Amino acid sequence: MVANSERNGISSEQSIQNGTVPPRNYEAELHLVRHKLEAFHSNLLHEVQQRMSDIVNDLEKDLRQHELQIREFQSPITTINSSNPIVSFHENNKDSYEERYSDRRRKEANQNSDMSKEGQQKSHKQFLKKNPEKVFQCRESYLTTLMQVGHIRTIYNIFIVGFVFYLMQNVLLEYLTSGRITLGAGIFQTGFANIHYALGVWLILNAYTCSVYYALKIWSNVRSKLHQQEKLRTIWSYLWLMGYILGVVMCLYLPAKFCFKLDIKYASAAALLMETLRLVMKQHAFVRTICGRAMQGKLKSDDTADNSPTMPPFSKYLYYLFVPTFLYRDNYPRTSCIRWGFVAARFVECVAHVFLFACLMENHLKPGLENFGKMQLNASLLVRTVFQLQMTSMLMLLSGFYFLLHSWSNLTAELLRFGDRMFYRDWWTSGDIFEYFRKWNILVGDWLYEYIFKDCYLYVFKGSTAACGMAVFVISAIAHE
């Protein structure tokens, strides 16, 4: 056997020398091994990062739930005097964004209006330092966090049972009285009549909103080329400013005119007008932010340098148009994944609220209004009608809050992996009407403060908080009307 092996070895060496067996390509083999090792390293690193992200998210959820369970039975006095367990997850410190704003209003109302220019600049810098821009962070909504407490979850389940019984009552009454089941179909037919016109106007509005990005890009590029010609630069900016104001006015006027001209009914018209306001507010926030960058800090009174690019990519602007916030940032905190179970739950809530609105309008609002004025008015009829409409309207107001600011906003945020879910605060614990309005709608409140109050304070009314507050109130009232 040894002789045979030696003979085979000698024959293989002779065959290699004769060229019958090609030599091995060690470089190709090393390249293949290196490629496999790099792929293994990349996959392993991705899996480790994913696993660590899941562990961190689970740990944050457990800590949040643990703190809620510890402090959920605190007395009201202790809760007021100590730190709020829910607020600790939604604010960086006790002096919240809105509380600092109210404190500044009280303190600066007594300042002398005829201060010097240096005093004004110093006051503006102090104002910006004490009232910084909002910092986005990954956090859940109040009700989402409260639902982790078993007692609050029980109350939520009670509301679900009540809603199911209410629908069953409507179904049985409709079937026994008319022999058919509509579930508010009449309201859908009349309220969403000519909805295709509303969709057409909505598409035109979105196309115009997207064109604002490219118009602003043209303005910024040409303005940067006119840096040595100050007069032409100023004329160029004022021309675009007038064009922007005209565009905003037309965006607000034309959809309202089309609602009357095309006979768009109330449900479709309400959705279209709300979308119009949303897009106009988004446009202004983006234009205000980019113009501040393009003017190289001339519209900023702080000493912090803005290292962000003047014009972000269009993808960032498009993402901003659909995320549930009115404050523009180049980057927002993002969640690691989409919780499809959470998405399904919020979608079911949205559908349920649509049917609830239809049933309330058909069974309670419509009967109280369609015959009002046709019958002889007396005290009994007046009291019964007023209180019936009042209770129904209050229920629709609360349901509208839950539908828009919780279910719909959380649904879009989860689909877009938008991390900051602070759409509202605990307005149900408010002690006065001003605190209630600050907590009711954080989305609109942040926009009014960032782009109306601060700009009026710094550049229009020069430190007059009373005038700035009145401007915010008037603009908010006009938009609501």
Characterise this structure:
This is O-acyltransferase. Residues 1-22, 84-129 are annotated as: Disordered. Residues 91-121 have a biased composition (Basic and acidic residues). GO terms for molecular function: O-acyltransferase activity. Residues 1-20 have a biased composition (Polar residues). Among the domains are: 100-132 and 425-481, no CATH class; 182-332, no CATH class. The chain is globular. α10 packs antiparallel against α11 (266-294) and α16 (442-460) packs across α17 (465-480). The chain has 481 residues and is mostly helical. The chain starts with a helix and ends with a helix. The protein has helices at residues 2-18, 26-71, 76-81, 97-108, 117-130, 142-146, 150-178, 185-191, 195-225, 230-261, 266-294, 314-322, 340-370, 379-415, 433-440, 442-460, 465-480. Mean pLDDT is 78; it is low at 1-10, 72-103, 109-115 and 297-306. It is built from 17 helices and no strands.
Compact description:
By secondary structure, the chain is mainly α. The protein is built from 17 helices and no strands.
Number of discrete helical segments = 17
User: What is the SS-derived class?
Assistant: mainly alpha
> Helix share of residues?
over 70%
Assembly state (oligomeric): single chain
Structure summary, number of beta strands? 0
Give me the Rg, rounded.
31 Å
Order of helices and strands, N to C? HHHHHHHHHHHHHHHHH
Mean pLDDT: 78
- The outline comes out as globular
Contiguous low-pLDDT stretches (5 residues minimum) are 1-10, 72-103, 109-115, 297-306
> How much beta, percentage-wise?
under 5%
Largest sheet, described in full? none
Distance between the ends? 103 Å
